[in-house]
Amino acid sequence: MPKKLFYSFHFDRDVWRTSQVRNIGSVEGREPVNQNKWEEVKRGGDAAIQRWIDAQMADRDCLVVLIGAETASRPWITYEIKKAWANRIGVFGIRIHKLLDAAGNPCVAGPSPFSDIIAVYDPPGPRSTDAYAHIAQNIAGWVDTAIQHRKRYN
Fold this sequence. Notes:
This protein is of the alpha/beta class. It contains five helices and five strands.
């Protein structure tokens, strides 16, 4: 049975890269939020963003943080990580800097937003296609591992 995921990422900078991961299809997540909807949520201020995140994270099995160049510095990503841990769901990260953006460019690898107990996967290979293939082949197992890992910390 597919797991219910919440993807956390820097929307403005990484939405193109993250859509590649979300479209792999081997795991389930909520429908991606489009830019118009995200702008509408943001106009409601911090309280509206927090309510939206809380509602979207309800009944999820795992938080997948898609780590780009600036992900670790984003306050809402920090909130999502803390919320996931408090909700006792699996948490892990995937570095997406090798995946290409809409203009066909990779980005630099950013720092991890996690402590040492959270796994971060950095797909090997020099090309975007290598990274994508590695993520596609392994993401379902990473989700299962993160869920089992979190259960040990309850």
